[in-house]
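Hi P.,

Sorry for the delay on this. The queue was packed all week, but I finally got your sequence through. Input first:
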Amino acid sequence: MDDEEHNRRLTGPGPPGPARLYALAAGGLLALLGVLGFFYDAGFETGANLADDDLAGVLLVNGWRNVIYLATGLCALGFASRLPRVTAMALGAFYATFGIWGLEVINGGIGSILDAVPLGNHDNVFHLALGALGLAAALIDNSDEILG
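Then the structure:
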């Protein structure tokens, strides 16, 4: 055991880096949005019957979207302490892709992904910001964790 590893064991882990902070904050926010979304719209309709409600007048939600938010939020919270850079990178890439895909399907300010997940302009801004922050946090984190 070298001196650095010995000192780390004595003092414990250092302060959380940007990736861990992002994973915890984004995971908590997404899990909260997923739970709250079910109070606004818990329907799982698709296609022409696709229904949605506004969460706090900003984000369009339905059952499918709530499940996505809840699942990604809980995964981020679960992996934030063990694999913060991987978690931030994966969550960032997922939501950046989700946001770009959303930009493609928006027609007249509203659209849907796979006729199941309703999207509006506010949703795309939220997803793109969440994605960009996650990718940035993973890239600037200088912890000694090996990515992947």
